[in-house]
Amino acid sequence: MEKSSPLMATRYYISSLTSNAKQLSKAVRSHWLVENSPCYFHA
Is-contact 24 17, C-beta < 8 A? Predict the structure, then answer.
């Protein structure tokens, strides 16, 4: 597989939360980590 260069993008969010940028970025990254992780079900 060919290596690709890192991608930088700007995202804008509207929220009524009173948090700082570090807390909000952590929350957003955590959300997408869960969304993009594979689902494993144990029977």
Answer: yes
Query: How buried is residue 42: exposed, middle or buried, by Cβ count under 10 Å (0-12/13-18/19+)?
Result: exposed
Buried b / exposed e along 9-35 (16+ C-beta atoms within 10 A): eeeeeeeeeeeeeeeeeeeeeeeeeee
pLDDT of residue 14: 82
Contact status, residue 13 vs residue 24, Cβ threshold 8 Å = yes
Assess contact for 17 and 28: CB atoms under 8 A: no
For the entire predicted model, the pTM comes to 0.42
